[in-house]
Amino acid sequence: MISAARKLLTIIGLIAVIGIIIAFTVVPTVIDKTSNRVLGDAGAAPSETTLALHQSLLIADLHADTALWLRPLNDDSDYGHVDLPRMAQGNMALQVFTTVTKSPRGQNYERNASDAPDNITLLAILQRWPPETFGSLFERARYQARRIVTEATHNPQLNLILNQADLHALQMARRRGSTVMGAIIGTEGSHALDGDLDNIDRLYDEGFRMMSLQHFFDNRLGGSLHGESQGGLTPFGVDAVKRMLARHIAIDVSHSSEAVVRDVLEIVQGPIIVSHTGFKGHCDQPRNISDETMAMIAEQGGLIGVGFWDGAICETSIAAVAEAIRYGIDHFGLEHIALGSDWDGTIDSPIDASQLAHLTQALVDIGLSDAEIRAVMGENTLRFFSRALPEA
Prior knowledge:
By secondary structure, the chain is an alpha/beta fold. It has helices at 2-25, 27-35, 48-55, 84-89, 119-126, 137-154, 164-175, 198-205, 235-246, 258-268, 291-299, 310-313, 318-332, 356-365, 370-388, and strands spanning 37-38, 59-64, 92-100, 158-160, 181-188, 208-212, 250-252, 273-277, 303-306, 337-339, 348-349. It has a single domain (36-388), classed as TIM Barrel, CATH 3.20.20. The strands form three sheets. Strands 2, 3, 4, 5, 6 and 7 form a six-stranded parallel beta sheet that branches. The protein has a three-stranded parallel beta sheet with strand order 8-9-10.
């Protein structure tokens, strides 16, 4: 009986060990593969003329959550949306990498409670993040940022962009034919501050140069577009915005309530970013703020990144991305429209970073000129950051 009991315990132990190994090695990859799919209509293959135009572009994207996932940035992966080899294949010059620190389970675009159970905690554990990230949103942001910084430190193909001089050097290198790429680090919601204004300075020191204020839920700074209050900036939020401005950190109002957006515009009195979005008049979804508020952003010189997923543009197709870009140009002005894919943000995208020439072809097909294509594919973004970043 004792021997049989020991055998049973041994078998149970082995099963438990195998289960743990699977949980920490297989499950994160399965979650990534099923959350960040290349799915939908990629449109027509680019012509030789379009490919020649595409290779001459300076391409920039305002929003990718790639640092959230386990796959190495330098690997040419066959799943997900972004890595350095695919960025190079797509002729990308600049990617803004955002850090996701909290995402409520059952997240939706209508309403999410601030205290809803969090998806990122379990993902952090499964991906073997440092223990300090399990209970601190600030540490989660810092950990993801350090993944980007480490890659830029050890890989000459990637430059961390911290100031105007860095960005100018990147553009000059690209124009000389270099394939070097740039990375700017941002937050996906300022709940990453953990309620401490001094964490703005600490994140700045870690390399952050763009901060969004909300994500799927209200936080200490104010209301989310998908939260319960729909409120504006709180006193803490006002102080946070002013501190960000003082540090030359670009302010991103993606996911913010319309009341927050208007409060921010009143304080900033200048350009802000909507890093990944659609247009209400083009796609009437709760993910998109009103055209009236979007016009106020454009009037103050803001930059609007057009997303690649159906929640923002109503279809999973490259034609829908192009149509949304055309809508943005027609209603808010060419100089305010950019790319904001939301790659690796648990979305289905019709293309990954290697397939950006398909978007160039779609823009050609809807009649955009070469100059208009250059602007929306990257030059508007580069111009924005050439002014918004610290000088040195």
